[in-house]
């Protein structure tokens, strides 16, 4: 009986994904077309990659919502450099460096000044959004003539390059978090810093590393989002805030309730991408998407708590 409950609790999101896939296949004749399935994967990749970054920070026991401000600002910096004649790869490296710098500052606020990461990263999000307006004058920066979108959104056979990148990042981060000593120590520090100290670990160093790795992944997401939108837009980060939080939240219901993990983020991003894709094909009203996401989130949390005396709360 307990083993059955454990299976339900660990694989609820995967089950919902399979059930919805079958339902959408039945009700939409276009859903199973190769072109549509590739489009579904593309829709899932950027949210999934940013979700990976958030999951890494959560594994370290913290939260970083500043990505909603980081993405438009880093995108504006990348776009400005590219339009001013800076070589592509140098522009990309500088953008990644900015992401690391922002994450390091956030880590100082949390580990040195002892500020709550949820509150401090929201404050940083607003600060970075303000800096974006000051930096750009409130104008979007477009890159149609300066960026070859086929570099990312072109295909290898029938598979978009961005999907291949997504899979590579997933494999690297999964092995890093689940199969390496560092990943194990990062999770120990995130779950119980005092136990980590007893084991000789330095929680400040590991939490800083978590923020920095997350920031690097956010910067990759920034580049992909900027390429997708063909420019740096003010709304590019804010529009991702709630979907990425939902992915991270639902992802914690995979492999055990309340345990941030990379496979969970992958499944949750595919789930949200599939809902958006199928609802468009079925010509359902736009407001049905967030409603469906909310219902699925409630179902996932309910099923993962079956058989437990106390409701398990997920910390974000």
Describe this structure as you would to a colleague.
The protein has one domain (about 1-305): ABC transporter involved in vitamin B12 uptake, BtuC (Orthogonal Bundle). Helices cover about 75% and strands about 5% of the residues. It has 13 helices and 4 strands. A hairpin with a 2-residue loop joins strand 2 (about 155) and strand 3. Helix 2 (about 35-60) packs parallel to helix 7 (about 160-180), helix 3 (about 65-85) packs parallel to helix 5 (about 115-135) and helix 8 (about 180-190) packs across helix 10 (about 205-230).
How are the secondary structure elements laid out?
Layout lengths: L1 H26 L6 H26 L7 H17 L4 H24 L5 H20 L4 E2 L7 H4 L1 E2 L2 E2 H19 L1 H11 L1 H6 L4 H27 L1 E2 L5 H14 L10 H20 L6 H17 L12
Antiparallel strand pairs: 1-4, 2-3
Radius of gyration: 20 Å
How is the main sheet built? 2 strands, antiparallel
Low-confidence region ranges: 310-315
**Residues in helix, %:** over 70%
Element order, helices and strands? HHHHHEHEEHHHHEHHH
Features of the shown structure:
single chain, disordered C terminus, ABC transporter involved in vitamin B12 uptake, BtuC, 316 residues, two-stranded antiparallel sheet, two-stranded antiparallel ribbon, 4 strands
Q: Outline of this structure?
A:
With 316 residues, this protein is mostly helical.
């Amino acid at each position: 009986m307990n083993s059955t409950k454990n299976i339900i609790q660990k694989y609820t999101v995967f089950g919902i994904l399979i059930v919805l896939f079958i339902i959408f296949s039945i009700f939409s004749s276009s859903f199973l077309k190769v072109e549509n399935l590739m489009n579904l994967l593309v829709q899932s990749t950027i949210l999934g990659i940013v979700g990976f970054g958030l999951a890494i920070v959560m594994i370290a026991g913290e939260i970083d919502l500043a990505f909603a401000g980081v993405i438009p600002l880093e995108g504006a910096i990348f776009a400005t450099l590219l339009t001013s004649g800076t070589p592509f790869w140098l522009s990309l490296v500088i953008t990644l460096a900015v992401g690391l710098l922002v994450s390091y500052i956030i880590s100082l606020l949390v580990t040195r000044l002892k500020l709550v990461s949820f509150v401090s990263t929201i404050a940083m999000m607003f600060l970075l959004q303000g800096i974006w307006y000051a930096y750009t004058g409130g104008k979007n920066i477009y890159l149609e003539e300066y960026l070859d979108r086929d570099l990312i959104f072109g295909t290898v056979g029938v598979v978009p390059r961005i999907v291949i990148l997504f899979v590579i990042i997933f494999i690297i981060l999964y092995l890093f978090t689940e199969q390496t000593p560092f990943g194990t120590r990062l999770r120990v520090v995130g779950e119980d810093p005092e136990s980590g100290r007893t084991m000789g670990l330095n929680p400040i160093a590991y939490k800083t590393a978590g923020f920095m790795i997350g920031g690097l992944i956010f910067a990759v997401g920034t580049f992909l989002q900027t390429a997708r939108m063909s420019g740096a837009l003010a709304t590019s980060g804010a529009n991702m805030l709630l979907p990425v939080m939902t992915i991270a939240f639902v992802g914690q219901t995979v492999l055990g309730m309340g345990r941030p993990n990379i496979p969970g983020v992958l499944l949750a991003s595919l789930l949200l991408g599939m809902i958006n894709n199928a609802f468009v094909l079925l010509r359902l009203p736009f407001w049905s998407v967030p409603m469906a996401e909310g219902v699925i989130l409630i179902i996932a949390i309910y099923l993962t708590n079956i058989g437990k005396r106390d409701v398990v709360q997920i910390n974000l």
